[in-house]
Amino acid sequence: MCLIRAPTLLALLTFSRVAIQAPISPSSTSAPDPASTVPYATTDPNYPLWGPDSSPSEPKPMRSSLGSSVLGPDNPQMNLQNPDLLAPPTTDNGQIGNAKWPFSFSSNRIQTGGWARQQNVKMMPIAKNIAGVNMRLEAGAIRELHWHKTSEWAYVLKGTTQVTAVDQEGRNFVANVKPGDLWFFPAGIPHSLQATGDDPEGSEFLLIFPDGNFSEDETFLLTDWLAHLLVIRKNFQVDEDSDAFSHIPARELYIFPGTAPENADAPSSPQGQVPEPYTYALSKVPATPLAGGSVKIVDSKTFGVSTSIAVAEVTVEPGALRELHWHPTMDEWSFFLEGQARVTIFASQGNARTFNFQGGDIGYIPASMGHYVENTGDTPLKFLEIFNSDVFQDVSLSQWLALTPPALVKAHLGLDDKTVSKLNKKKAVVVAPLKDKKDRFEWMMKLQDQ
After folding, report:
1. What span is annotated as the signal peptide, if there is one (predicted)?
2. Domains of the chain, each with CATH number or no CATH
3. Which of 144, 216, 252, 385 is catalytic?
């Protein structure tokens, strides 16, 4: 007979009681509410505290109980245009490189017949993959025959521009490009630009180059090259005693006056014309209507030669929003055509920053950084999203959540079934203002009274 001593028996009974009372390992359905581990995020819309038309005395680096007035030197006009930099939303945090550059800050190259100003990585260090040029030509003025190491994409802002080009096979191309239309020249293809007489003021356009280090001053120009050659007559088989080629400019012309072209007829070429046009009539393409605006998208699927630039022309109604999204692999270079906007960029690790934009401003958002574009004015907002890519791509936050298992979404965000069911399984692109406009109405009235 086995005898168990009293101390040993007591220990066994104690162990058994502890084992029976031990908690069962929690299942996935008993996961703690997110609120038990972190506080709730704010739902305050953090509207801008003033607008570009407010009184210069209104801007102060203060929001609610935070901040204080400026006692030293200040620039009120800059503050009026950038309310969310001076008085950031409470959701802003950390640092992001400056994602805004007004063309007004760029040095202007003034010529007889027009001007040009540029933005590249020297002005805007965050913009590593795309550079832009804003150019104006008076009626008849010519941007001289030239070519680039990179491709050139353009959007006409005003007036009509005649473009000419000849490809490496000797096939030529001539066309007139109207406001809202595009052109694209592959890298190394020689071309020219000239304002027609359609508009007595000439033309103005935006040029895009898929290289943040691009400089307009490093263009290969016809006159610059020929002014530095010793064998011009030999190359063109001209007699030494001929005065042909004796009036070549001693330095580049770049932009110079000319006579407006009478037509857009190309000289006859034995090789024929280019197989695909270098221009695209975007202005004639119907916009896709959306709940809060509209969009037109052009990439190599619709504009075949545009193999390195894709674009979305977006219109957002007052109070509406270019939905929360990001672009997986390509940076976004934005150009604001009209209206007022604010953009918050999320760069991970708690870094988020809000910028304000008006017509003529450039924005830049590195790949995969989440963002939105909100119309903060009382007129339509129109802007371009431009990418160094052959195809336009974006990821919609709402669509992502709608197509993810609901239980997973609810576990992250604490949403109820009704809210989850309303998530859009198709990209909205632009979403309408909320039906309850009371807060925004009071905000707009406040700005108008300032």
Report:
1. 1-21
2. 102-280 (2.60.120.10), 285-431 (2.60.120.10)
3. 385
